[in-house]
Amino acid sequence: MIDISHEISREIGKGAVAAMKRFIHREKSTDSFQSHDVEVLLSRVTAISDEVTAGHLVRVRKYAILIAEQLGLGEDTQTQIYFASQLHDIGKMAIPQEILQKPGSFTRTEKVIMNTHTLLGGEMLRDYHCPYLEVAAEVALYHHERWDGTGYPYGLSGEAIPLSARIVTVCDVYDALRSRRPYKDCYSHDVALTAICDGDGWTLPEHFDPQVLAAFVKLNRWFDDIYTGGLEV
Ligand SMILES: [Fe+2]
Ligand SMILES: [Fe+2]
């Protein structure tokens, strides 16, 4: 499965990854990336995303910052997570629209193609020698890995998955559960919370870093406020 994903991502990604790398390079104001450049990049990527995706990206960033603070991470790490979380799905820009927008469930092949957004995102964001983009590349690549090893693209488990990605995973799943998707209705906050903490047959608590999950549980009401638009972070 991994080999096929790599093959497919190389095929799909050929033009799109190169185009995104050129786009990112243009945002540099000096030889290296400054935080201001990455801030501009974030707003450009959000602006070229459709409205639903843009909302998801901004909310995931807000949740991720709350968790990073709750875990007591240093200011630099929090800033890296701030940038990285909003870029986590950048690889989807290389996925064909007919798959992204498909109503109903994916075929096996479509699912494999969709899952390559992790590999493509990691590829788009690496090699800029900028700490913000290095963490962003890490998050793009690993945000669908799961603590119990059942995720993709590599099936990593536990602390082999970078903490930044483990934080974004719970934020991403919460937001996906709350949102309407072509294959599912939106869940209330309480149903999403129960799915994450107790499992619903699809999402399981074993998917998440226990430490990150505990922070999420502590902060869960704020997640609801962010989702419903009542909390600015
Ligand atoms: Fe994703
Ligand atoms: Fe996402």
Q: List the uncertain runs.
A: none
Strand content: under 5%
Question: What are the distinct ligands in this entry?
Answer: fe (ii) ion
CATH topology: Hypothetical protein af1432
Count the beta strands: 0
By CATH, the superfamily comes out as Hypothetical protein af1432
Structural domain tally: 1
Radius of gyration: 17 Å
Keywords for this entry:
Hypothetical protein af1432; about 0% strand; binds fe (ii) ion
Description:
By secondary structure, this protein is mainly alpha-helical. Helices cover 64% and strands 0% of the residues. The longest helix has 25 residues, at 2-26. α9 packs across α10 and α10 (189-198) runs antiparallel to α11. The termini are far apart. It has a single domain (2-227), classed as Orthogonal Bundle (Hypothetical protein af1432). The mean pLDDT is 89. It contains 11 helices and no strands. Residues 56, 88-89, 172 line the site of one fe (ii) ion.
Note the topology:
Elements: H1 2-26, H2 35-48, H3 51-70, H4 75-86, H5 97-100, H6 108-115, H7 117-125, H8 131-142, H9 163-178, H10 189-198, H11 210-227
Helix pairs in contact: 1-7, 2-3, 3-4, 3-9, 3-11, 4-8, 7-8, 8-9, 9-10, 9-11, 10-11
One fe (ii) ion (FE2) is lined by residues 88-89, 117, 143-144.
